[in-house]
Amino acid sequence: xRVFPAVDILDGRCVQLVQGKRENKTEYGSPLDNAKxxxxxxxxxxxxxxxxxxxxxxxxxxxxxxxxxxETGVFxxxxxxxxxxxxxxxxxxxxxxxxxLGTLAIEEPESVKFxxxxxxxxxxxxxVDAKAGxxxxxxxxxxxxxxxxxxxxxxxxxxxxxLFTNVDVEGLQRGISIDPVKRLVESTSISVIxxxxxxxxxxxxxxxxxxxDGIVLGSALYSGRIALKDxxxxxx
Length: 236
Known about the structure:
Blueprint: E1 2-10, E2 13-18, E3 21-27, H1 31-40, E4 45-50, H2 51-56, H3 62-72, E5 75-79, H4 85-93, E6 98-101, H5 103-107, H6 110-119, E7 124-131, E8 134-137, E9 142-146, H7 147-157, E10 161-166, H8 178-187, E11 191-195, H9 201-210, E12 214-217, H10 219-223, H11 228-235
Parallel strand pairs: 1-4, 1-12, 4-5, 5-6, 6-7, 7-10, 10-11, 11-12
Antiparallel strand pairs: 1-2, 2-3, 7-8, 8-9
Helix pairs in contact: 1-3, 4-6, 9-11
């Protein structure tokens, strides 16, 4: 199971949000410095989110993200503000290993098929952000249907993996809700990366036992509630 430390970027700074709300942000300095910190502690992959893009459809942090890709040299999956096939292709051509398609995948499902055929399945992650079992898009404000049905559709269209974010517990640092993750793993045959609420080594171990292929560590990692080395040891 692979560990993806999160590097979320807002106004050029590394931040963590609570429940995806930009007014509930905590700043942690330079995105590149944080990326290098996690790599120095053993990470071989990063989960980078362009929050300015997610909120505004902006490429405001493009230069900073490209610098991060070049300077770190590790596996990078990127999301946030990817509103078109052209946006996704641009990032893949710029050196991102995998793009996360969220709202775009829901509103234009054929984009998943096109990009997987052009760049390969492994380059495409379909985002399944779920609240009370329903996929939510547009800043988690708009409901778009059952998350299991969407996951099956993304698999059929050619996504190489799914990023499941449990919005109900995301950013709260109160632990995971395992049942929705189990349902997803049992319902699809492609890789699942889990995010949301992971706050302790026991959460990591529980997710590993469900069969997920990766986890994203965010708020609890930055606040010190969970140490990266402990998560990496469990995932071996």
